[in-house]
Amino acid sequence: MAAALEITGLTRRFGGLTALDGIDLTVEPGESLGLIGPNGSGKTSVFNLLTGHLAADAGSIRLSGREIAGLPSARIVRLGVARTFQNLRVLKRLTVYENLRAARHAAAPALESLWQSRAARRAERDAVMALLALFGLEDRAHDTSDSLTLMELRELEIARVMAADPALVLLDEPAAGMTAAETDRIGETIATHLLPGRSAIVIEHKIRFLTALCPRLAVLNAGRKIADGPSSAVLDDAAVRDSYFGSGSC
Ligand SMILES: Nc1ncnc2c1ncn2[C@@H]1O[C@H](COP(=O)(O)OP(=O)(O)OP(=O)(O)O)[C@@H](O)[C@H]1O
């Protein structure tokens, strides 16, 4: 079986800066990989290349065996890649319901047909409302998203990804800015609802949160991968501790 994701030799330069320098990374079907590294090490650039928001200077990105490097981002979404952002990107002027509907249609544009039958519209409404009910957001369905709390917005982002039903999920700091209790809650939501049956890469500085979700970690430093393996072994690695944690502990 092909890997869910196989990145080889991925390279991206910005002027004289090499942000990613020949990265190799594989994610197996159903696997969740944690991606860590100091600020500026290239983590978000990996996501931007994977989603087609940035073009690679060299290298290959294969999704279930199919090359996606160079494809437009809308096409990559339709091939089953969905992402959350460090700074939330839900469409704040749309209602909660409309956000999920837009995510479904971006992943499967055929749904957007003017000829959608009444039965299809009802099925869609039921699917979206069932998703909102999972997050306790059904009462907020017709509120605009700018009225939500940070916790509700993060849950809406997770629901938005689930509405697209992707094979590969990219989570960029899903617990950023959250209290310890909120971090626990969003971690449980991701583990229970989002990750089962999907492959994932999770970027997160909160290491305990990350290792609870991801049995494997890859570490970037200055655009290079310096470690990749079982989380506990990677966190014990001397080079990782030097580059990421300084001499401190996690
Ligand atoms: N669009 C861009 N134009 C110029 N330089 C960029 C661009 N995007 C990223 N960089 C640079 O590339 C390097 C890697 O950045 P990137 O955002 O991928 O790192 P990161 O590991 O995600 O950092 P952080 O943890 O701070 O989000 C940094 O030096 C950054 O300044």
Task: Please describe what this structure looks like.
The chain is an alpha/beta fold and 250 residues long. It has two domains: 1-79 and 197-250, P-loop containing nucleotide triphosphate hydrolases (Rossmann fold); 81-165, P-loop containing nucleotide triphosphate hydrolases (Rossmann fold, 3-Layer(aba) Sandwich), CATH 3.40.50. The protein is 38% helix and 24% strand. The protein is built from nine helices and ten strands. It has helices at residues 43-50, 73-78, 96-107, 118-134, 150-164, 180-194, 207-213, 231-236, 238-245, and strands spanning 5-14, 17-27, 32-36, 58-63, 66-67, 81-83, 168-172, 199-203, 216-221, 224-230. The strands form two sheets. Strands 6-7-8-3-9-10 form a six-stranded mixed beta sheet, with helices on both faces. Helix 4 packs across helix 5 (150-164). The protein is globular and about 55 Å long. The relative contact order is 0.17. The structure holds adenosine-5'-triphosphate. The site of adenosine-5'-triphosphate (ATP) has 11 residues, from strand 2 and helix 1. One of its GO terms (molecular function) is ATP binding. InterPro entries: AAA+_ATPase (IPR003593), ABC_AA/LPS_Transport (IPR051120), ABC_transporter-like_ATP-bd (IPR003439), P-loop_NTPase (IPR027417).
SSE ordering: EEEHEEHEHHHEHEHEEHH
Largest sheet at a glance? 6 strands, mixed
Small-molecule components bound: adenosine-5'-triphosphate
Strand order of the largest sheet: 6-7-8-3-9-10
Structural class: alpha/beta
Q: Please, what is the average pLDDT?
A: 90
Q: How many domains make up the coordinates?
A: 2
At the fold tier of CATH, the topology name of the largest domain is Rossmann fold
As an assembly, this protein is: single chain
Helix content: 25-40%
Instruction: Please tell me the CATH architecture of the largest domain by its name.
Output: 3-Layer(aba) Sandwich
Radius of gyration, in Å, reads 18 Å
What is the straight-line distance between the termini?
36 Å
GO molecular function, one term: ATP hydrolysis activity
Protein name: Branched-chain amino acid transport system ATP-binding protein
Domain ABC transporter: 5-247
Organism: Jannaschia seohaensis
